[in-house]
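Hi X.,

You mentioned you wanted examples for the new student's onboarding notes, showing what a folding record looks like when two proteins sit in one file. Here is a clean example. The first protein comes first, with its sequence line followed by its C-alpha cells.
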Amino acid sequence: MNWSMTKPKRKKKRNESSPSWEFQNLKGSKRVRLIAERKTKGYTQAQLGALVGCSGSMISSLESGRLNPSLEVALQLEVVLQTPYFELFPDL
C-alpha cells in the first residue's frame, strides 16, 4: 500500500472576469476632511466617538467610507468638529 501523510492538493478556482468580481473588493472613498478635522482638534477615534455618542470603530468606518452616518451622528459630528456637513461628507 502506498499511503501518504500529506493532504491532497485542491484545484485552484478560476478567476472569473465578470463585473461582480471586479467590484467585489472596492471600498468607498476615504473621507479625508473628516480625518483631517479630527486630527486638528486632537481627538482619537475613540475620543471622538465618545463625544458624538457612538463607538470608535464606527468613526473608523465613517472615515474609511464603509459606513454612511445616521442623521444624529452627522449632526453631532458637525457640532463637535465645528465643520459643515457637506465639507465632512462631500460624497453624500
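Then the second protein repeats the pattern, sequence line and then C-alpha cells:
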Amino acid sequence: MGTLIRFVRRRPAPRWRPARFGLVPALVAATVLAAAVAGLAWWGNHRAAQRDTAVRQALATAPAAAKAIFSYDYRAFDDSVANGRTFATGPFAEEYAQTTAALKQTATKQQAVVAAEVSSTGVVTATADRVELLVYLNQYRRNVTTAGEKVDQNRVVLTLVPVDGDWKVARATAV
C-alpha cells in the first residue's frame, strides 16, 4: 500500500481591503448630507434676497405713502383723501376713510392745511411679504387759529404689504 500524500495547496493570506459594504452607504450618506446643506444654504440665500427686495420696494414707497396719508388741504380735501387712499389697503383703508370723513368738517372750518414730509425711515422688521418701517414724519400745519406755521414731529410705524405688485400701507401706528 502506498502512501497517499495529499498535497494541500496553501492560499496566501488575504490582503486587507476596506469592506465595500460599509463604504457605499457612507458615501451615499455623505452625498445626501452635502446636498441637504447646499439646498438649505440656497434656500436661505433665496429668502434673504426676497426679503431685501421687499425692503427696497417698501422703502421706495414709504415716503410718498406717508406724505399722501398724513397730508391734506381743506381747499381740495376730497382729492387729498383720495390720494391717501391709493396707498392704503385692508382694514387700514377703512379706518383711514372713517378718520378723514370725521376730519373733513373741522379741516374746512379751520381752513387747515397739513403738509407731511418724511425726514428718515428705518426698517423695524421685514419678510418677503411684510415690512414694518419706522418713519420720522414732520407735519407742517397752518390754519386760521394759529399764527404762522407749526411743525409736529411724529414717529409712525408703517406696515407695508404687497398688493397686486405695489406696496400698500396695511397699518399705521403712532409711536
